[in-house]
Amino acid sequence: MLTQTMLTNVSVAFIYREAKFGSETISQSLLGEEVTVLKSEGEWRYIRQHDDYEGWIGVNFLCEKPASWDDHERFTPKSQISWIHQSPDRASATFRDITLLSSLPVIDHQSGWVKLLLPDGLVGWMEDNPAHIPSNMDLERLLATALQFLGIQYFWGGRSPKGFDCSGFIQSIFNLNGLQLPRDAYLQAEMGEQISDNYETWEVGDLIFFSERPAKITHVALSLGAGDFIHASGFVKLNSINPLHADLYIEKYAKIFTKTMRVI
């Protein structure tokens, strides 16, 4: 079949390794995200995302792109999870949720609200408080972005505030700061320049990689400097491979540390 561009029509749609709900979830697609359909199998579509990640998604979570979809400015919500209202009034009914990193077309502004076009052609309203994705990287802003997700649960295949896996967390915080990274940890490990294994030389924003299997990167974290890091493991939290930082130190990570890359 010819490729087809479709849109994700729910806040978070799971992407599976196989065309069945019982298979492994490998990633997520967010509301309004464009995906390229490469093939079909019954009620499933094999899709490619903007970062070239591929997998299966249920067709019920997709819809065809409205003709005017590309004709408008975009709105990205600032809150981790927000609600879309039926009218520009906080008391009005809500009918869909939306997560940070989603983006929808704006078709009107009214008294501090924006009118948004949804993938299925419906329209809804949100308060006009957008996130601003910068064009240049700022380490202080990157750190603040990462820290706002402390406590968010781990979810295999997750790349949203409803649950992150380790590489989905890293990809998301960098995307929110204007730098696109690959989806998986082993691909992120090929980005940038490898630096010393001495954690005293690590800077905020470096990526620290770990491996529990020979020749396979299995985990990634964001360096906070001096061996400390933030990562998604159980939930988004702080840890360290520096034994002097006893409140954060986890011996396991010191043992399976593999390398550190500087991507900024």
Question: How does this structure look, described?
Answer:
The chain contains 4 helices and 21 strands. The strands form 6 sheets. A 6-stranded antiparallel β-sheet has the order 16-21-17-18-19-20. It has a 5-stranded antiparallel β-sheet with strand order 6-5-4-1-7, with no helix packed on it. The N and C termini lie far apart (40 Å). The relative contact order is 0.12. The protein has 264 residues and is mainly beta. The chain has 3 domains: 4-64, SH3 Domains (SH3 type barrels, Roll), CATH 2.30.30.40; 69-127, Roll (SH3 type barrels); 139-262, endopeptidase fold (from Nostoc punctiforme), CATH 3.90.1720. Helix content is 11%, strand content 39%. It is globular. The model has no long low-confidence stretch (mean pLDDT 96).
Distinctive features:
264 residues; mainly beta; SH3 type barrels; endopeptidase fold (from Nostoc punctiforme); 3 domains; six-stranded antiparallel β-sheet; five-stranded antiparallel β-sheet; globular
At CATH level 3, the topology of the largest domain is endopeptidase fold (from Nostoc punctiforme)
Give the overall shape, derived from the CA principal axes. globular
Order of helices and strands: EEEEEEEEEEEEEHEEHHEEEEEHE
| Main sheet record | 6 strands, antiparallel
Distance between the termini: 40 Å
Question: Which regions are unreliable across 5 or more consecutive residues at pLDDT < 50?
Answer: none
